[in-house]
């Protein structure tokens, strides 16, 4: 007897992010390609992963820490500032590059079929390659200011949870805007505006207490519905807070672990599910539109 015919599938349609796990070899090739293209013709190569955040930190530290006096108002302001910068850079690289990943690879998509989700996910892994060196530098700075003597298990676990929230949320937004960008190139401008606002809409350059004390109560609650805000505060809780000598003075936001973190995880996951659904619905028209 002849073998049953395989189930037919609509061309250009896949199983969404599940296809990424079944095409790990292709994913690795795309990640390698993205890294090589990123540093092609450069002299410093991956050293830029250290240099860019270092210059960014120096500018903000001088402008905010020295000129505006936050260095005196926040204990170990350098660790506080750099921990926020590292995480917001992680978000910016995933979201920004994922949103452009389909249009940037339009020539390849018009020639062959492969799961389109590979390109946004590949940018997540490229961002992780750049994220790790920055984490190493941040960990060294935290150790130098007494992190090891003041840390507990919850604070250690807060670090990977913060990274998970950022990775899932940024990838979900990247899938949404990667889809919009194929049909409406104005989406890139919206992405640039979101990235510009994201740094100031989360406690990267200032303390969360400023929002609580100087704005309306409802703004405070909306502020903490932003997963980036929660992730940055978790990073502060895991890396900066153990270095603080006066824990009573520099306390963390109320209900950070019990309420805001679960809410942030749910919002991040729902964003990724919505992004994957939107992406899958329209990916069959990507090659035609490009």
From TrEMBL:
<feature type="transmembrane region" description="Helical">
    <location>
        <begin position="50"/>
        <end position="70"/>
    </location>
</feature>
<keyword id="KW-0813">Transport</keyword>
<keyword id="KW-0997">Cell inner membrane</keyword>
<keyword id="KW-1133">Transmembrane helix</keyword>
<feature type="transmembrane region" description="Helical">
    <location>
        <begin position="259"/>
        <end position="279"/>
    </location>
</feature>
<feature type="transmembrane region" description="Helical">
    <location>
        <begin position="77"/>
        <end position="98"/>
    </location>
</feature>
<feature type="transmembrane region" description="Helical">
    <location>
        <begin position="156"/>
        <end position="184"/>
    </location>
</feature>
<dbReference type="InterPro" id="IPR047817">
    <property type="entry name" value="ABC2_TM_bact-type"/>
</dbReference>
<keyword id="KW-0812">Transmembrane</keyword>
<feature type="domain" description="ABC transmembrane type-2">
    <location>
        <begin position="44"/>
        <end position="282"/>
    </location>
</feature>
<dbReference type="GO" id="GO:0140359">
    <property type="term" value="F:ABC-type transporter activity"/>
</dbReference>
<dbReference type="InterPro" id="IPR013525">
    <property type="entry name" value="ABC2_TM"/>
</dbReference>
<feature type="transmembrane region" description="Helical">
    <location>
        <begin position="118"/>
        <end position="144"/>
    </location>
</feature>
<feature type="transmembrane region" description="Helical">
    <location>
        <begin position="190"/>
        <end position="208"/>
    </location>
</feature>
<dbReference type="GO" id="GO:0015920">
    <property type="term" value="P:lipopolysaccharide transport"/>
</dbReference>
<dbReference type="GO" id="GO:0005886">
    <property type="term" value="C:plasma membrane"/>
</dbReference>
<keyword id="KW-1003">Cell membrane</keyword>
<comment type="similarity">
    <text>Belongs to the ABC-2 integral membrane protein family.</text>
</comment>
<protein>
    <recommendedName>
        <fullName>Transport permease protein</fullName>
    </recommendedName>
</protein>
<keyword id="KW-0472">Membrane</keyword>
<dbReference type="Pfam" id="PF01061">
    <property type="entry name" value="ABC2_membrane"/>
</dbReference>
<feature type="transmembrane region" description="Helical">
    <location>
        <begin position="220"/>
        <end position="239"/>
    </location>
</feature>
């Amino acid at each position: 007897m002849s073998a049953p015919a395989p189930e037919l599938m609509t061309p250009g349609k896949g199983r969404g992010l599940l296809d990424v796990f079944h095409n790990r070899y292709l994913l690795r090739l795309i990640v390698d390609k993205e890294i090589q293209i990123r540093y092609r013709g450069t002299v410093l190569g991956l050293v830029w992963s250290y240099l860019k955040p270092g210059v960014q930190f120096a500018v903000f530290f001088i402008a905010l820490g020295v000129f505006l006096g936050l260095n005196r108002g926040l204990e170990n302001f350098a660790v506080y500032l750099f921990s926020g910068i590292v995480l917001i850079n992680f978000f910016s690289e995933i979201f920004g590059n994922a949103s452009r990943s389909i249009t940037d690879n339009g020539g390849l998509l018009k020639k062959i079929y492969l799961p389109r989700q590979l390109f946004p996910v590949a940018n997540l892994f490229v961002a992780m390659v750049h994220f790790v060196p920055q984490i190493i530098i941040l960990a060294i700075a935290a150790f130098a200011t007494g992190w090891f003597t003041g840390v507990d298990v919850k604070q250690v676990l807060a670090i990977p949870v913060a990274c998970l929230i950022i990775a899932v949320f940024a990838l979900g937004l990247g899938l949404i805007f990667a889809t919009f960008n194929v049909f409406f190139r104005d989406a890139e401008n919206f992405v640039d505006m979101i990235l510009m606002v994201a740094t100031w809409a989360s406690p990267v350059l200032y303390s969360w207490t400023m929002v609580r004390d100087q704005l309306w109560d409802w703004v405070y609650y909306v502020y903490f519905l932003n997963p980036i805000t929660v992730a940055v505060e978790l990073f502060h809780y895991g890396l900066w807070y153990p270095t603080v000598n006066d824990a009573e003075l520099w306390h963390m936001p109320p209900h950070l672990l019990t309420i805001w973190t679960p809410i942030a995880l749910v919002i991040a996951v729902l964003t990724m599910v919505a992004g994957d659904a939107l992406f899958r619905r329209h990916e069959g028209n990507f090659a035609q539109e490009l």
